[in-house]
Design goal:
Helix content is 70%, strand content 0%. The protein is mainly alpha-helical. Helix 3 runs antiparallel to helix 4 (81-103). The radius of gyration is 19 Å and the shape is elongated.
Length: 158
């Protein structure tokens, strides 16, 4: 039987590694996507409304990142309970972020002219996500963490 200190340390390390992996992916992916695609590919003409391509890329990447983060948490912790804690923490954080995004008045930014030299952060701030994306992405991320962390122990077949 493992010592309690080791189990607790593994649980903490698992949640921390999952969080770092998920956060790193969330920070790095927009930079990657903006370096590969132009603003005209990502936003609809004369506005900062995202194109369906941009929405699909963001949702697919969020799901994939969450699967990996859940798997890493489970692999390090060697237990499912830290994965549940990790999913709860991320779920609460995403819930409050979504509520904040929905309650902030939508100040209409200046129309996009196509000659903007915005950086990634400015583009994200000016972006006008549909409500279903704002509410659906946290659900997708939490589900991804839980699915990624639901790895079953394989028993040897002898």
């Amino acid at each position: 039987m493992p010592r309690t200190d080791d189990t607790l340390l593994r649980a903490f390390a698992g949640v921390l590694l999952g969080y770092v992996a998920l956060t790193s992916a969330i920070v790095l992916f927009p930079r990657l996507i903006h370096s590969v695609l132009s603003f005209d590919d990502l936003f609809q003409p004369a506005s900062f409304a995202p194109t369906p391509l941009f929405i699909a890329l963001i949702l697919c990447f969020a799901a994939g990142s969450a699967l990996v983060a859940g798997y890493l948490c489970r692999m390090v912790a060697r237990n499912r309970k830290p994965v549940l804690l990790f999913a709860a923490i991320i779920g609460i954080m995403c819930f409050f972020t979504a509520i904040f995004a929905l309650t902030v008045p939508n100040a209409q930014p200046q129309p996009r002219t196509g000659s903007e030299t915005l950086d990634v952060v400015q583009g994200q701030v000016m972006s006008q996500q549909p409500t279903w994306v704002t509410l659906g992405q946290p659900v997708l991320v939490v589900a991804g963490i839980l699915i990624g962390g639901s790895r079953r122990r394989l028993k040897s077949q002898s």
